[in-house]
Every structure is written in C-alpha cells, then in structure tokens.
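Two entries, shown back to back:
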Amino acid sequence: MLWNRNFSLLIAANILLYIAVYMLFPLIHRWMIQAWSCSELQAAGVTAVFGIALFLPGAFNNYLVDTFSRKNVCTRSIMLLALVGILYPYVSSVEMVVLLRILQGALFGIVLMATGSTLAIDVTPSNNRNAANRVFTWSSIVGMLSGIIIGIEGGNYLSFDTLLYFSAFLCAVAIVLVSMVTVCFRAPLDLPLCSFDRFILFRTLLPGINMMTVPMVLGMLFIMISNAFFYLCIGSGFLIYLLVRQVFTRPMNGRIQIFIGQLFTGAGLMLLCNADTGEYLYGAGLLVGIGVGFSIGQFLRMMILLPLHCERGTGYHTYQLLWETGVMLGIWISQYVRQAGNNNPYQVALGICVIGFLLYQVYIHRYFTKHYQTN
C-alpha cells in the first residue's frame, strides 16, 4: 500500500519543508534590496547561491545515511536549516548573508537526500516505489508554490523577522512528523567516506540537464512576477494535468507529452510577452501550470526508469538536485537579462522552453529509449 502511515507523514513533512525553504526566496531577495541596498542582480545572486550549495555535501551522502540513523540525519539537518534561517537579521555584512545561504543550501541538499531518495523509499513497498517518487515530486511542487505565495504575500502583513520564525516553525513541525516515522533498523556499513552513491547518477544526467529547462522557466517567473494569484493559477494548471493523468492512465508517448507540455508553457510565455497583467497574467499562469505538469510527467518518468534497481535513490536525488539548480539558475538569469536590458526576460524564457523541446525531440528521447531497453 502506497499511502501507509509512514509515507503520509513524510509527504506532509516534505510539503512543510518546501514551504519553509521557498518562502525565503522572495523574502531574502526583497530584504537584500531594502536592507543592504543591493541591486536586483546582486540580490538574485545571493538568493541563487543556494542552488550551488546543494551539491557540497553530495559526496558524503551515502556515508551519512548508511553509517548513522537516517531519521537522525534528516531531523538534525532540518533543525540546523531552521536555526541558520533565523540568523539573517543578526549578520553584519553581505558576505555573511552569502555564507548563511550556502549553509542552508548544503543542509537542504542533505534533507532532500534523506527524505525523497532514502526514507520515502525505505517505507514504501517495492512495487509502489515508482508511484512514491511521483507523489513525492508532486508534493514538492505544491510546497514550492505555496512557499512562494506566502513569501510574496507575507511581506505585506508581517515583519521579516516574524516570517523567518514562521519558516523555522514549519521546519520544527516537519521534524516532529519525520520523528514519528517508523523505519527498519539498518546495521552500519563499512563504506568509503566519499562516493557518488545517493549523489549523482551519470546514467540520468543528460535527461536531467534537459529537464532543467522546466524549473529554469519557473525560476525566471518567480523573480519577475510578484502576484500571488498567478501562482495559484499555476497550481490550478498543475491540478488539471493531474486530473487528466488520472483519466488517461496509459503512459503517453514521450515525444507527444513533451510537445504538449512545452506547447502549453510556450503559449503561457507568449501571453506574458504581450502583457503580464490582468487576464493575460492569470491565463498565462494556468497554461504554464498545465505545461509544467505534462513536461515534468515525462522527465520524471525517465529519471525514475533509467536507474538500475540499486540506483533508484541516486537517480531520484539527481533529479532533485537538478530541479533545484534549474530554479536557482532561472532566478539569476531573469535578473541578468533585466539588467542587460537588451531582451525581454519572457522572450528569453520562451527561448529556453524551445531549446528544451528541441533537445528532447532530437536526442534525449532516443537516449532514453536506448538505455531503458538495456536496463
């Protein structure tokens, strides 16, 4: 059974964790501009360094979760993530802010590995693990969008310090939920300190790089649009995709699915190129949400099916790292384009969407078909 008690607890914890982390992006970006007189590009750079830091602990991941208690690795990393988050008002330089972002990124990287690619698999029967990876991904997107909305709207009603404590509170609730999960004891293994296990699976790296074009577009929108209802529209579009997927249960041809996904996303971006207010904005959000759903549905399918049996955790963590990195790249690219002033950021996002579509159709689909058949 997929929705057992342990898995449900992890899903709830994952949603809260993503809200706690993603609500900080608009908050810290705005705070860097107001409190530190940073430019938009500098603030985006400080925000996006989080994505680079995700990779810092990766080589130690396998050693951590197979030498120490997996729950303890997860809960203590979340606790440190929360504690670092409430230190922002007390720093005395931009360099210290960057250091805190790096620390949070590294800790979040450990948490991602310990939850989605380790604990979620541990508590799920082997015949339901593909579905578990999908559900975990959908819950992450729900938490991500909710966090962005809270970060945007919360700043209008609450102080920066209060919202930081709220983020820490959500982390604390996530810790309690993870602590309630029952995981079978695993004897410590004699493992090397550093390895690529539970870090990066090179077999899935090319499809993962192609997949990054989807979160890059989202990241660009996160920094350009500060209308909370727009993100509700994206969530609604994503829900429409999930409903369509429930009706048509047979796997869709990958080329067609990516075509539909990028077509909807591109249509939404074209609306934004014309106008990013009113009905244009909300219609674009709905189209982008549907497009992201279709696109990620196929990319995630590849990232789940390409790993060998013993590589599932590493393959899923590769997906998680590249997704988060794509969002951070999008945040930085949007501000770089704005500062350069030569291009409309929505046009650049549309170009990224087209590149992602062409790369999949020309090469990645054949790569997946070839390697999946030999799996």
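entry 2 starts here
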Amino acid sequence: MSDIVTFGETMLRLSPPDSERLENADELEVRAGGAESNVAIAASRLGASATWLSKVPETPLGRRVVGELRGHGIETDVVWSHRGRQGTYYLEHAGEPRGTNVIYDRENTAISTAEAREFDIDRIQDAQVFFTTGITPALSTTLRDTTLNLLKAARKGGTSTAFDFNYRNKLWSPDEARETLTKLFPGIDILVIAARDARTVLGFEGDPRQLAHKLGSQYDFTTVVVTRGEEGAVGWHDSVVHDHAAYETDTVDPIGTGDAFTGAFIARRLDGDDVPTALEYAAATASLKRTIPGDAALVTADEVEAVVKDSSEGISR
C-alpha cells in the first residue's frame, strides 16, 4: 500500500546541450519527465511511499521510462500496451528574449486509450491520496472519462483526492479546459492551480489570496493552493488563507518546479503538517528543484530542512 498514487503520462524528454537549437543539434540528452511521476518522486523524496499508474507501450522507449522512474525510488504499476506509442517532448533551453521552448510529440500515445477498468482500483482505494492533473484529460476524450472515473473510485474508497489544474495551452483551449475540468471538481479534495490559470481558464478575478477564497467558497474543496510563480503561493484551508514567499534560487532548470512543490506539499500534509508548514517545505523543495537538471526533484529531506532553517525569514503568514 502506498501513501500516494499518481496517474498520468510520463514522456521522454530530449534536449540539446546548453542553449543549442534543435535544428542544428548533434546530440540530445534523454530523461523521463511527466507531471504525475514528478509529483510521486518529490513526495517519495520527502518520505511518502509513492506509486505511479499509467499505460505504457511495450517498446524499448516505454521500458526506458518505467526503468528510470523505478530508479528514482517510486513503485510503478503500468498497463503494458502493444498499441500506441511512447510520448516525447523536446526542450530548448535559452535565455530571454528567446526563452525556453517546449515541443510536444504525444499524439496517439498508449495512455490515450487507457480506461479505468484496466487499473487496479484497490491500489487507489488503499492509498491515502490519489493524485492526477489537468494534463491527463487533455490528451484524449477517453482519458476525460478515465480521469473522472478514477477520481470517483478514489472518493468511493475513502481516499483523498488531489489535483493540479496544470493548464497547457499547447494541448487545448481555455474553453475546452474549463468545460472539462470543472466537471471534475466535485471529486477533488485538494486543488492546486496557478493564479494565471484561475484567471485565464476559469475567469476568476482578483489577487492570489482572493482567488483562493473564491475557489474555496464556490467549490467543495478541502484545500486550495494558488501558486504565483516567483512570488510563492497561498493556501486556503478552513476558510483561512496562508501565504508563503518563494525562496531565492539560482535556476539551472525550471521544468518540474511546480510538480516538486505539489509533491512536497502533499507529502508534508500526509506527515501531519498544517497548511502553513506544508507550504514552507513545498517552497523549499521547489527552490532546490530549480538547481537540478531534468524534470525530477532529486532532493533529500535534509537539504529541504536546511533551506527551511536558513531561510525562515522568507515566511509570511
């Protein structure tokens, strides 16, 4: 039995070295990366037992993904498929004004055909938290039903549900996302959402504290966390909003920062921390992730503790 079970697609990430362009790169670095597995890794690094559920092609590339995730210390429970392909994405790192560019190649992937009946529902219902994101239902109409059904199954078994809104404009429009994701809200206990997505997709107005209050009041969430990039995050719980600033960091690779934050937040809540303390450790984990290449937050609990201890003056509640 795992503390947290996550569900979603993990892709292979291919990146040219330094700030090279893909069109003239002679080599590509290969890593596994996906929001749900990133959250599982971060939670595991902070002491929670974690399992990643997915549907993966029975190919060398699919096995590469599963093997890498297992190497990061999380359990994998996958449906092996002889149909569909392994999703990939290409990442160009660059400074401004060019900026970082992500190119998805995830059409007709194995997970796009995944149905709830293919998975071990007992594994979800035996966990303390079931987690997924808004990326998963964006991948196919089948996954919209699957995500809804797995959230319902978790709730039916008494498992808490956590959901990162995680809007991606390269996958669908704001209107499509709003119509689909708000239908999932009744099955969600903990919502994590970027302030920009609350405004752009859901049409809410106000600063992050106001957004957290409005979301918590309008929908039946237990906890709402509104992230605000370099300014940190706010957490709404029991009708009270708690505020935490981001920690300063020298950024090496920002990809996966939000997942590191979410995984750490869930792990600390599972360990009994209150919302302000969980925000504190989540911010520290996110700051460390930005110093690490790749999607995964390969941090230690001691490192996170050190950031919290050394940067306690950054807390505002």
